[in-house]
Amino acid sequence: MKQIPFVWITGAVCTGILLSHFFDPGWNVALISLLLLGSAYIVLEKRSVVVRWPLKSTLLILLIIVLGIFRFDLEKGSANPYSLDKNYLSGDVLVGSLDEIQESGGSYQKCFFKTEALIRLRDTITVRDRILLFAKDSSHLLRSGNRCVLGVDLMKIANKGNPGEFDSKSYWEHKGIRYLAFASEDQYEVISQGTRPWFHIFRDLQQYFGAILDQHLSGDSRAVAKALILGDRSQLDSEIRSKFGNAGAMHVLAVSGLHVGILVEILTLFFGLFANWISKKQAVYAALACVWCYAFLTGFSPSVGRSALMFSALSLSALYGKGYNNFNVLAFSAFVLLMINPHMLFDLGFQLSFLAMLGIFMFYKPLSRVWKIPNRYLRKLYEGTMVGVAAQLMTFPLTLYYFHQFPNYFMLTNIGLMLLSFLTLFLGLLLVTFSWSAWLAKWIALLLLGMLVSMIALVSFIDELPGSVAEAFVPGIPLVLAFLGLGVFLYLAIWRKNLSWLKTGLLVSAGCVLILIFTRTRQMERHEVCFFQSRDIAFVVRLGQQSFVFYNAPARRLKSIRFLAESYRKTTSGTMNYYNLKDLEQAHLKVEEWEILIQRDKTGYQVELGDKKFLLATNYGSLKKGTSTIICAPWLDPPKGAYHLKRGGLRFNLN
Hints:
Largest sheet: 7 strands, mixed
Distance between the termini: 54 Å
Structural class: alpha+beta
Shape: globular
Number of helices: 20
Number of strands: 20
């Protein structure tokens, strides 16, 4: 415990945050417990007792757990007496300021609105909260820091409960946002310019550097360059995201520890040129300043924050001759970030970043020693590949849980992108540095374009390889935790050189893999019908590896239907076939031994699948319970015994 204190401290803080999240004891209970445990610890510290150390250690761990509970409770809306949950009523007018505006291609801008007060009749009530606001701004008048009056009804952010759906409710809730609103230009008014926080200078710099990239690049190359260099992913379309995801290269598009590591390598090379003029201490401080500026420039994501903190701790420890433990430094970084914002524990970027580094610290050295390669360059290539494998060993359970897919050629992708990522970031930084010289910027941009085109071509090639991605993984939380626990157990077995532990760990791991394969096979062989919760009629009939998507929606919303269907496909795999029911009274398909018959009437859609009958009710009509299973559209009130899509998407097994 003395060698890795922050591992224990951070573990206790995480335990407290999880207890607060799932059981919600309340900040007042946590505060009283904190005071009592703190007092007991101080008393025990001052008294000489034989069993003092075990008691003191236990009290210290409990104290830190309660600290985690208290810190998380302070960030909850339930602990805020000025939250919208406790004060807002439909029809209230809100007064506040725009915290951030994310530019988009359309007339609606995505904003974060910080409320200051609400006006109800003649009363003004203080409110401190944040809203996700989509505001129409055809005149481009909205700016960060503007104070506005907003007269629009708020909607609580909620999930639709469709298979494979992103958990947007939890995502925004852990960012302190529970409401969203859509405002046309006559529903808000700018009343003053307001003041902007100091850190907005980094957002201005990001926009300035983005304009330089806009000037020299276009299309997918520009979108990838902005994501990789500046952390701005707003211009990435779904196709390029899908290609990078299927190839196992999404970490390249999200500024992360990889980018900070590349930046550190670039800075090391740069300051090495001035070794005769700059001392080692000055070079370290200058590098730290550059890393932290880059972290804020790219949005200070959890993975970048972790990398900047780790680099700072390791650099300062080495500079002042202090010893350090990799696991302790990693845990220290997590502790600092969680104290700043305990909701980060539930951020996917935070989880993947720390698990990836944990995997590298645990398994990189054993893996790199498996194969001794005499050639220097091949050895570097092999070692770089093993870094990716070590990271995947700890991150793949979460990847399968959140994304339901695994990139089979991730090692090939990492080999190809190691050099391309380095050169792309290096050339991007050169371009924004020498943009004042039109001639020099032109040639740098040409080289940068070549790197970006090569990167996109490589990712597209890997994406198109047979079996590039394995889908239909739906592991439960127990299996995810089992894999993570086994990773730690195997590391301990290797560290202690205990062969029996290693054999046991590998045997249990093989069993967990077989369970994963078995559940995936069952998922892929399911025959089912799934009705989506959507503003349009949409449902899918899955028969083995064939899925048939039936919908009734205007052409402008076909993209939304495809998004629903593709999210579903990731949980089941197979081929998607689309059929528009808009102008059809009847549809009849025969697939092997199955017959699909869909008839439209005044009540809705009668769906017959063999001996199974369903009624997707879109109008009230006659909804008497009969031989059909009744599923009511979200806008209907369901009769007794009927299913309701308002509660989420519905799946019915046909096997």
